[in-house]
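Worked Example 4.2. Consider the chain below.
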Amino acid sequence: MQIPNRFVSPPIIPMKKNLLLFILCLVGWYGFAQATEQIIVLPQTRGVLEGTLLLPPSHKPIPVILIIAGSGPTDRNGNNPLGVKAKSYQLLAEALAQNGIASLRYDKRGIGKSMKAASKEIDMRFEDSVNDAAQFLDTLKKDKRFGKIYILGHSEGSLIGMLLAQKVTVNGYISVAGLSQGIDEVINQQIKAQPFPDSVKNTVSEYLSILKKGQTIPKLMPHLVIAQLFRASVQPYMISWLQYDPSKEIAKLKTKILIIQGDADIQVAEQEGQNLKKAAPKAQYLMIPKMNHALKEGSLDRTETMKNYQNPDLPLIKGLTEGIVKWL
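Applying the procedure from the previous section yields the following structure tokens:
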């Protein structure tokens, strides 16, 4: 039977050997100690929420970061079935572990191993994502292996992290590629940039205003885009989401803040990060040249970006992990 590495004793060096050689041997042995993975399972009313805790070797309490994923059907590793296979969160977790920092990343409700915990669309609310993240954070707070606890939110996860950091005491909050505008402003900008008739663009703006007031829209304008954006089952979720303006929410935080943004992000412009910094003047701002939305080196060329999103072998951009570690 092969004995697991963690149970093998360090090599014994005879005392007559050079003491320096003995010390170097021990340093080399323990330097190769691997981070360990622990699966975290949180039972729900239906199904479970599941995540991966990555632990670097340590005999004392270490810092830990809760990683909150971005929008869409994104799993714990940062992948989704819509063409993203970059495993950005997995790479980030591994890089943090190499620097003595633990992390917990998880499958969103309805995704991956958390699939069976999915709710009906009409029952979903934006706050559900905040509550799910809170459950994982509570697990970390109860674990004596951890000292300081941080929240990192990527893309849509940035807003989720802000709202969570208002509810609980943490040692710091990190926004990565987060929006500074409300989702209504973002949708309006995206629709206006498309070759739709003015009637469609104006209707989208009108419907968003109605939802933002907490009212539903019983009868929709007959148009495919309108039908997709404002279907009856998604309106309650949109109403809950539209209540939050990231620039206002980040200004409410009492903890220390790090805002990270790249200038090669075709999904969230660099200006968004700058606007968050204006809303939270005491925050530290880190702009990483050539970083795209997948946290890798890229450009504003859409074709290159799409290839980049599907390349799990491409490493994280240099400066991201280093910037986080330095801030911690």
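Residues 1-17, 19-32 have pLDDT under 50 and may be disordered. The chain is about 35% helix and 15% strand. Compare this with Example 4.1 before moving on.
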